[in-house]
Each structure stands twice: as C-alpha cells, then as structure tokens.
Amino acid sequence: MQQASTYSRTLGFAARGLARARPSAAAALPASIFAATAMLLAMQFIGMVAYDESPWKLLRMVAALARGPGVLQPDDEFEFVAVATGFILFYAIATLYGLALACILTDSPRRHASLIGIAFGLALYAANFHGFTALFPWFAEYRTIDTALAHVVFGLLLARAYSAFRGD
After folding, report:
1. Is 61 contained in some domain?
2. Residue-wise pLDDT tens for the chain (168 aa)?
3. Domain count, the chain
4. 93 lies in which domain range?
5. CA-CA distances (angstroms) from residue 32 to 26, 113, 137, 160, 162?
6. Domain contains 59
C-alpha cells in the first residue's frame, strides 16, 4: 500500500489520469490578432477624439522601438516605412504576449480565463508603461487610465478568444 501511495504522488497528474495540456500556437495567433486589432482601434479612436492626436502617432511610437526616436517627429505625417514598421511590431509584440498568455491559460480552468486575462492586461500595462519607459521614455505620456483600460480589454479579449479558438 505504501508503494502505491508513493507511486501516485510522484506521477502527479499522470497518475490521476490527467495529462498536462499544451499551449496552442494555432489558437494563440488568431486570438492575438483579434485582441491587438481591437486594442489598436480603441487606442487610435481615443487618441484622435479625446486627445486630438494624429492617427500616426502611436504607430510611430511603436516604430521607434526598432528605428530609434528619430522616427517620432513629425508625428502627424504619414510615412509608409514608419507606419508599416509600427504595424508589424505592434502585431509581433501582441503575438508574443498571446503566446505567453496561452502558456499561462493552458492548465487553468476555462472559467478563470477572463480573470487571468484581466490580470495579464494590467501586468502588461505596468511592464510597458512603468518598466520599459526607462528604455523608451516616449511612452511615458501614455500612462493614462484609458491606456490601462485598453490593456485590460486586450487581456480579456485575448484570454476569451484564445479559449474560443482552442475549443475549450
């Protein structure tokens, strides 16, 4: 009897017939694109309506991650390379965040996905706008409640979409 008890403790999930799930990149990719698109549209709309910003400002700020701060000015002019770089980087970073959240959600019950997504969005906001601004100070002006809420919505949509695309 002692041997069987030790056996089931050492195998953990497998001994109880529960195999560890694996994250699905096939579900994380469309979930990331969906959530990133919603977030980008919301941030662009808020920026243009509430702050009278150029629609190119945010994308130029993202492009500056790769091309340096020289691409930031003038923020109201369309420059194809800057905007395209901003789009590519925005979606690439969102995809990395989607893959990270997929790893977190893999062994979590589906009923917790929304809460985990909200917490993930808040953590991203804190890291992006209170951590990475040490390296990229031009993002400090986006430390606003609407940006925090956009990140919360991103995390929520990402978690829900990942669960839906995965078929949980």
Report:
1. yes
2. 555 544 444 444 444 445 568 999 999 999 999 999 999 999 999 999 999 999 999 999 999 999 999 999 998 899 999 999 999 999 999 999 999 999 999 988 889 999 999 999 999 999 999 999 999 999 999 999 999 999 999 999 999 999 999 986
3. 1
4. 24-166
5. 10, 15, 26, 11, 8
6. yes
